[in-house]
Amino acid sequence: MSNNRKLNVFLPLLLAATLALGMFLGNKMPGAQSGGTAIFFNKGNRGTLQEVMDLIKVKYVDTLNLDKLQQEAIDGMLTHLDPHSVYIPPSSLQAVNEDLEGNFEGIGVEFNISADTVNVISVLAGGPSEAAGVQTGDKIIKVSDSLVAGNSITPEKIRKVLRGPKGSKVKVTMLRQQKLVDVQITRGVIPLWSIDASYMLTPEVGYVKISKFSATTYTEFMDAMRKLEKLGMKKLVIDVRQNPGGFLDAATRVADELLDGNKLILYTEGKSYPRTDYKCQRPGMFEKGALAILTDEGSASASEILAGAIQDWDRGTIIGRRTFGKGLVQEQFDLNNGGALRLTVARYFIPSGRSIQKPYANGREAYDEDIMNRFNHGEFLNQDSIKQTDTVPYKTGNGRKVYGGGGITPDIFMPYDTTRFSGILPALYARNTFGNFIYKYYSEHLNDFKRFKTPEDFRKQYQLDNSIYNAFKTFAQADSIKGIDRITAKEETEIKTRLKALFARQLWRNEGFYEVMNETDPMVERAIKEVQKREE
Q: What integer is the mean pLDDT of 386-403?
């Protein structure tokens, strides 16, 4: 009992002393005299950058957009690294990942925006919109009762409201032949194909166009190869022009189908990543047979891995122009804010031992200007103008000299076709005059195109007559394109070819487009001649 009395007397004194000490310490804390918010910083657990960010957040005189400030700080740090180490903000991460994963969840239409109106220019065959009855030529007026037409709509805004989880429903109000039509669409998984086209150039020569190396590329490639083999393919042309790369694994698996034995495809090595060899692991589908790879200045990364392995083992002929020159490997790290850091962790080296990474010591601006400098230097037009940044020669399997340090130099050089981008043509591309005219004409003449069953039928039988060409010129003139009355014969040929290819694209997407465009493509024509020379 006496102990309880002592505790009852002692506790109030202890609490009073603790309160007094707290008030004293609080008065001595930074900011206590100025009404500021005090904060305890555990300096041992945070780096200087985070320490500065925390101080700015709590103490700075004005309110700041801290997300923007943080992104600028990260971007500032990354400018001191290589040009391919990048920060991906949360707002962009989904789109970036979808592109490489090879699919997204949505309604399955292709659209353009003109006069503040969303026009459906293509409906994915077998997709959710086709099942719901959406038609090419429909104009999207409302999405879930929210007006989108005439409401400063942008591609980003319309994608945001149309996309959603697989199985979810969205009501879309369309304007069709001057009548409003409500369509209920159940969203699904929409593929983002990385193989744009695969067809027979000749009875024996197959063609495969790879636009990127995504998670689905290898499966798509094998499907394309099986189809071409059934059609009689004995020789092959693979087109990786303007292919920016993608997953390393996708490139090595495609290369494995073209190389025999256990040949080295590439190896990677970095400060924290010991050397890793990537070799052929299985019998390939096309280890024999004449092969050509088409490249240009837009062929980068995984595209260069494929082209480099084929060149270093003398497996096929590289035709075109020097590739981009990216020999760095990135790993993507997810961040707590929902963004990601894509950080360079290693370099890759192709079988001859060469790195094809071009220099970046002069900063990102100089690095970004490299392609334009090549053009200005004449490299796009003349093979003798190619400057090798690494003068140390490497040797292919057959002892041929090859060079690194700036891309893959082709075995057969093909100059840039300036006729396709001269005169009034750049203005027609910039204003999307081709696309707008094709959408308008095609949607008004749907029945004229129904008789064509395949891209090959269309390529051989469709003739773009002068009435359509003249209608295009009238349309272009109304679109403020100057010089329509001074079109040269070469420009007229290019315009007619592109119009025909874009009509084919309306019917069969990229498969139709490339089948028409390749018919007059000098690089494709040269590739056919080269593979036909070889008898296997």
A: 81
